[in-house]
């Protein structure tokens, strides 16, 4: 009996499903990435904490001001994270606080304002405003490769939403190359592979990336079911 093609769960995968999966990936790893952003303050900018007498008031106030916006972001309250609360909402929210856009406007040059660019970009993307998201994500300067890779991946998502596919793919590839690690790098590589396969119709490049994940990150490959992707493409799907 001739071998029957092995069905995989991505055989009918299309662009809309790619974008749905992008949103799911964001939700799954959101807190991990945001933890890396906060770690920049504790590690890369630790002098804010161990040398109070050396701190500038602007930096101190900025880090206090961004706390509520980041808390709203982690709760998926993206509009509140972005804009904060005005007088109309202050009573309902137990007081007013500044959103990411306020932090950027009021505390320019601080690490909190830099983080706010990432938060604003990610929030705008989740609110369906990809064009605006791109501006803020490009302005973010990741102090560690981990968070910079996350920003690149979100830029890929944003350009995908605007149908600028070449730019989207370039940022997915940047994310995969930035500060390689076993947790997030294979996730970004798979996004690049799927985009090559589904959007760019470049199955050969997609297969290369899937096999690279299997070789370099075997545990992640198992978690992400990369073997199914390899089988699908090797069968000529």
UniProtKB/TrEMBL annotation:
Keywords: Membrane, TPR repeat, Transmembrane, Transmembrane helix. The chain crosses the membrane at residues 32-50. It comes from the Bacteria. Gene3D superfamilies: Tetratricopeptide repeat domain. The keyword Oxidoreductase does not apply. Pfam families: TPR_8. InterPro entries: TPR-like_helical_dom_sf, TPR_rpt. TPR repeats lie at residues 149-182. This is Uncharacterized protein.
């Amino acid at each position: 009996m001739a071998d029957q093609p092995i069905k995989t769960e991505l055989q009918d995968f299309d662009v809309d499903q790619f974008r749905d999966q992008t949103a799911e990936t964001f939700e799954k790893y959101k807190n991990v990435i945001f933890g890396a952003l906060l770690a920049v303050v504790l590690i890369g900018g630790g002098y804010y904490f161990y040398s109070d007498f050396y701190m500038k008031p602007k930096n101190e106030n900025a880090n206090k001001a961004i706390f509520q916006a980041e808390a709203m972001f982690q709760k998926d309250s993206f509009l509140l994270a972005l804009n904060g609360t005005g007088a109309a909402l202050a009573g309902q929210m137990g007081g007013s606080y500044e959103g990411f856009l306020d932090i950027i406007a009021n505390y320019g040059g601080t690490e909190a304002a830099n983080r706010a660019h990432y938060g604003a970009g990610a929030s705008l993307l989740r609110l369906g405003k990809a064009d605006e998201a791109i501006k803020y994500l490009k302005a973010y300067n990741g102090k560690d490769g981990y968070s910079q890779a996350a920003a690149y991946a979100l830029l890929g998502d944003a350009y995908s939403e605007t149908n600028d596919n070449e730019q989207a793919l370039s940022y997915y590839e940047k994310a995969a190359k930035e500060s390689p690690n076993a947790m997030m790098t294979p996730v970004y590589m798979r996004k690049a592979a799927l985009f090559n396969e589904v959007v760019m119709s470049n199955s050969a490049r997609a297969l290369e990336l899937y096999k690279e994940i299997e070789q370099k990150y075997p545990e992640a490959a198992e978690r992400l079911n990369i073997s199914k992707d390899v089988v699908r493409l090797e069968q000529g799907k």
